[in-house]
Prior knowledge:
Structural class: mainly alpha
Distance between the termini: 100 Å
Order of helices and strands: HHHHHHEEHH
CATH architecture: Up-down Bundle
CATH superfamily: Rhodopsin 7-helix transmembrane proteins
Number of helices: 8
Strand content: under 5%
Largest sheet: 2 strands, antiparallel
CATH class: Mainly Alpha
Number of strands: 2
Amino acid sequence: MEMTNWNLKILNLTETTTSRTIVHEESQIVWLAATDYLELSGTVISLIGILLNYFCFLTADKLPKSSSASLMKHAAFWDSVSAMNNGVVKMGLQQLGLDLDNLSDLSCRFVRFVFPLATFLAVYHVVLLAVDRIVIIKAQVWHRKHYSPNAITKISGTIIMIGIFINTPNIVFYSMLDGRCQPITNEAMTLVAVGIFGLVLFVLPFIILIVCNFFFVWALNARETRTNTRQTTTTGTESTTVHNNRPTGENFLQIFSQEDHFLTKS
């Protein structure tokens, strides 16, 4: 009788283990299918982004020569490089079953250095674009005197040097271990490095962009309010010369093309 009970317990345990294995395998299949879909979506979105950046570059090239137009070209270029690396090359090759990270020790170090570097440069050129708009609003005279296409090139070069400095440790601390590209440091150091990298590459730029764009919208609304106030106090023939200065597409082009004309015409 005891032997029969033990046999039943073993049989139930085997059935439970088998069912868990089946569920685990099914979940892995679903996860792999979802990963393939996400990688394909990422490749398509990256290609669209590169095309839009190309049009942005052409638009900036046709604007009057200014620091903002030059900055737009820098931002469009580096964003395209990042999209090409991460979306087209990396995810595209993964769709073909080729993991660029794990080809060799050299490719492991190369990918871990170049791809994050491109992302860093794309992110911080967008941040620089947001900061540039705030400087135009708050210090127009200083902006005209000190911000030139030459100055933007120097600032861009500084960002590139900082990006190289920050990402150079990846060449040393990544290598092929057990057939996969992974950090050769201990778990604690890896966790600290990932935290710092995430803070520099995602959290800090996100906060700066939120603050700059909030202030930019607030400044435009305040300018519109002041303009509307002047309109209500203007009488007689003078009132016919005042135009409604709502922030339109033309105003935004003025922001990026002619800093000295940023103030809406009145």
